[in-house]
TrEMBL record:
Keyword annotations: Cell membrane, Membrane, Transmembrane, Transmembrane helix
Subcellular location: Cell membrane
Protein family according to the UniProt entry: Belongs to the resistance-nodulation-cell division (RND) (TC 2.A.6) family. MmpL subfamily.
Organism annotation: Polymorphospora lycopeni
Transmembrane segments: 12-32, 174-193, 200-220, 226-248, 278-299, 305-329, 363-385, 518-538, 545-563, 583-604, 631-650, 656-676
Protein name per UniProt: MMPL family transporter
Entries under PROSITE patterns matching the protein: SSD
Domain of life of the source: Bacteria
Main localization of the protein described in the UniProt heading: membrane
UniProt-listed InterPro entries: MMPL_dom (IPR004869), Mycobact_MmpL (IPR050545), SSD (IPR000731)
Membrane topology term: Multi-pass membrane protein
Domain SSD: 197-328
Amino acid sequence: MLDLLGRLAHQARWWLIGASAVFLVAAGAWGANAFDDLAGGGFTYAASESSRAADTERERLGRNDADVVVLFHSDRWTVADPAYRDAARAVLDRLPPARIEGVVDYWRTGESTLVGTDQRATFAAVQVAGATENDRLTNFLAIKEQLTSPDLDVSVGGPLAVFDDVNTQSRTDLIRAEALAVPVLFLLLILIFRNLLAALLPVLVGVLAIVGSLAGLRLLAQFTDISIFAVNVVTLLGLGLAVDYSLFMVSRFREELGTGQTVPQALRRTMVTAGRTIVVSAVTVALALASLAVFPQVFLRSVAIGGVAAVLLAGFFSLTAMAAMLALLGPRLKERRRCTAAAPDPDAGAWARIARTVMRRPVLVATSVVVLLVLLGLPFLRISYGWLDTRVLPASAESRQVQVALEESFPDSVTRATDAIVTLAGPVGEPAGQQQLAGYLERVTAVPGVGRADVTGAEGDTARITIRSDVEPISAEGRELVDAVRAVEPPPGGTVLVGGDAAGFADLMDMLAERLPWMALLVIATTFVLLFFAFGSLVLPVKAILMNILSLTAAFGAVVWIFQDGHLADLFRFTSTGNIDVVQPILIFAVAFGLSMDYEVFLLSRIREQYDLTGDNTEAVAIGLQRSGRIITSAALLLVVVIVSFATSSVLVVKIIGVGLAIAVIVDATIVRALLMPATMRLLGDLNWWLPGPLRPLYRRWGIRENG
């Protein structure tokens, strides 16, 4: 199949290049507005009790949450001054009724909790009209510019303002990351290839992957919710893997040309060797990312769908557009070597010497590397899980500044409440309903940790009970309090749904604990099967999986040390929350596991190719590492450049993922591939290639053989 594709790429090269150009224009035009169709948040899920509580509350009692918080402050007046009132009301009263559902402020309610401790600040809670989050965002953007006053300082916060800030910041960060990454990639490729045309090709394929990823996200957003937080991650994967795969293709093509083959022969040989490696790698990475779909969260599902699309696009363009350009440029891509008295021995290069040195002391090297990686991973044992808040944004973001002001000046208004939505057997207003509700209130108030519980809304047979506590909601104590409240006996014949931040976090943790083993099993099982068919061994897949887990441990430890403990906060410019968002390690695991397998497949492919020729395991490892080590480290360097450019993001979610992935790739491409891989290959010897007799026909029939 790949041999046929190689012939087609040569014969129809102009058609493929033309089709790629058309795709670039069309996808660029469509994907340019991808951010407009994406959803915010995506960290809860509809089936949880907290989400069902919120839905029931909205349907029966109306929305009780503030979409926008308008913070007023004056250096001249106090809130009690009529001039202050008139200036603030002038701002709120001119909001168009068609775009808002309601406004709660101090002058309408007389609530003292809406006045700051210095008596010069107050805030209004605005509910924005709209059936969906995107509808409400549209209405918010339409009124945002009206939230100004010539007499008062006005700042805007709240969920919609946070989403707008994240949207704006993500778009800015994406443009900056691309502007940083692409020129640096091009310069490094020139140094790697010492050929301008060869260096240009991976960049062109990377641009195709970026444009295709954004267009794909926008297309997917027409059918399902796609989280805006997924954009940078998906674009990172598309660009990084496109450059990696293109590097594999160009390097192998130049190698084949160097043996004296014609362009058609070199291209076909490249497709059945490097092309097969790309296919195996792309499928492996895609399967690792697809495992995220076992989680019902929009955010993880978005990364799963978008990530799979980006990886497949990267592989597709590498095998089509890249192959066509190789056919077109042909001999102009040849590596120019200096004339020497004798050709260098390909088996005696630096990488081969490293491999042979390691394999002379395999026990010492393997033990040292394992101990080092375990030590680096120790901080992960004390990880503290949390949830996202406004601190994902830079300190300069207005919505974050509003939240800080609320916490400092309005301590009684910052909600830490848990809401119990109680549905009775009869109307709340009847004596029987009131008695049942009073009995439930009494039982809830008696729960240890509950400060007070009040009925804050009632309609028909449904009531909202707001439960207040001093317990931090996003904490182990908060989860225990939610469990205790949920254990309270509901009114006879009635039902209770417990919601709020603490309940949402508890539901999220329970769901992740339930589905994480299935995700891990899916990743490990699919990787094992794919590597078995790629290399015809039962031992190599197990060893590859164990080494990947070991290198990921070091990356997780570094993430905890940097972001949870706050080390290097000034260098990376972030505010430590004292915990790690619970979904970040899962996302890093899926992406980094796939990327690590990328290099594993490439290296093992060259080793297997040599082993099939000689049957000598030790020499196959040395020569395989010699012929792939430079490409792997170059590919890792280029990928790290892409990742680090995205790690400069001001959005903490993207920054954590970027830094975690960069560390994982560096550890994997250096310590693991150059030291642990040859050491373990030497220790296992011919056992590396062990395949039971009953499975040999299966491998002969369906095996993905590198040498065709």
